[in-house]
């Protein structure tokens, strides 16, 4: 079958985050044969699964859950027990991008991406195939929609924000290394068993003795010490107060998100996980 003969599919990858959800809402009545997919690492937050159920009900169509051929623990062993990090994002490649590409196949397919007009970035780099591969589409950029518009879309739909937004601003695995310190504290307090599971991955390398940690410069055992938690909370409180005084009319959830942007020292987060 040639590119001209192949029917171009329409695929929208949900991450469980607000931007991809808002895009699904925005596109629902614009593209009748949209396929919705979610790359499930099996390590997502309970709030994400719950939110996706509500999104699915709103869309009136099933969300296809894509799983990697092998789970996180398999790939961790393959990568020498070296935890993924902002510099070594093997998890994104193996658990998110590969299942998505496998699902799309040879294409051609439009991949709808929820990057906004007020963001200076682009998403998934298209793969090439004889049938035309994956063609990225940016409806929010094309329509000039910015963060406030996305929030409005979610509120108008009745879906609102994912529940985890009260303590964390990005979707993705519960142990994601893109989390800020205050978000690790959130995980500790909201999902202590998941915090313990994340902690159990922090093991010394048997040969070098190096301790691989999720969070920069400290282990989760150190981070959960009461005085350290108190310090992290105090820092966050100061930051929130500063942001509040600058932007009086903002809601707490917006301020929390902005403190995240402000403290984002990880570089570009992975968009297939966090949009
Ligand atoms: S959410 Fe974080 S840990 Fe999970 S696959 Fe994405 S980058 Fe990796």
Characteristics:
275 residues, alpha/beta, Rossmann fold, five-stranded parallel beta sheet, 44% helix
What does this structure look like?
It is a single chain. By secondary structure, the protein is of the alpha/beta class. It contains twelve helices and five strands. It folds into two domains: 9-166, Rossmann fold (3-Layer(aba) Sandwich); 181-274, no CATH class. Helices cover 44% and strands 9% of the residues. Strands 3-2-1-4-5 form a five-stranded parallel sheet, with helices on both faces. Helix 2 (46-59) links the parallel strand 2 and strand 3 (63-67). Helix 1 (18-27) crosses helix 6 (147-157) and helix 7 (181-190) crosses helix 8 (192-200). Iron/sulfur cluster is lined by residues 41, 84, 89, 91-92, 95-96, 172-173, 176, 178, 270, 273.
Fold topology:
Blueprint: E1 9-14, H1 18-27, E2 34-40, H2 46-59, E3 63-67, H3 72-78, H4 90-104, E4 109-112, E5 134-137, H5 139-143, H6 147-157, H7 181-190, H8 192-200, H9 220-223, H10 226-246, H11 252-262, H12 271-274
Helix pairs in contact: 1-6, 7-8, 10-11
The structure holds iron/sulfur cluster.
Residues 41, 84, 89, 91-92, 95-96, 172-173, 176, 178, 270, 273 line the site of iron/sulfur cluster.
Bound molecules: iron/sulfur cluster
- Within the largest sheet, what's the order of strands? 3-2-1-4-5
Total of DSSP H or I helical runs spanning 4+ residues: 12
Which stretches are low in confidence, meaning pLDDT under 50 for 5 or more residues running?
none
Reading off the top of the CATH hierarchy, the class of the largest domain is best stated as Alpha Beta
Largest sheet: 5 strands, parallel
């Amino acid at each position: 079958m040639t590119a001209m003969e192949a029917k171009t599919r329409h695929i929208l990858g949900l991450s469980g985050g607000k931007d991809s959800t808002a895009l699904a809402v925005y596109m629902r009545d614009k593209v009748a044969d949209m396929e919705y997919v979610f790359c499930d690492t099996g390590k997502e937050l309970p709030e994400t699964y719950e939110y996706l159920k509500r999104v699915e009900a709103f869309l009136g169509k099933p969300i296809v859950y894509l799983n990697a051929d092998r789970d996180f623990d398999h790939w961790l062993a393959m990568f020498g027990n070296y935890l993924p990090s902002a510099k070594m994002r093997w998890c994104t490649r193996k658990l998110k991008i590969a299942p998505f590409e496998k699902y799309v196949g040879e294409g051609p397919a439009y991949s709808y991406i929820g990057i906004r007009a007020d963001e200076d970035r682009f998403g998934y780099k298209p793969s090439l195939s004889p049938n035309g591969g994956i063609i990225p589409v940016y409806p929010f950029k094309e329509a000039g929609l910015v963060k406030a518009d996305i929030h409005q879309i979610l509120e108008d739909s009745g879906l609102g924000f994912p529940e985890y937004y009260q303590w964390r601003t990005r979707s993705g695995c519960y142990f994601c290394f893109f989390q800020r310190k205050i978000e690790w504290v959130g995980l500790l307090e909201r999902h202590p068993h998941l915090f313990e599971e994340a902690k159990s991955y922090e093991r010394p390398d048997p040969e070098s003795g190096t301790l691989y940690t999720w969070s920069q410069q400290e282990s989760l055992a150190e981070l959960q010490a009461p005085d350290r938690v108190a310090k992290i909370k105090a820092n966050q409180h100061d930051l929130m107060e500063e942001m509040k005084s600058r932007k009086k009319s903002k809601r707490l959830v917006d301020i929390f998100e902005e403190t995240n942007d402000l403290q984002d020292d990880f570089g570009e987060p992975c968009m297939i996980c966090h949009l």
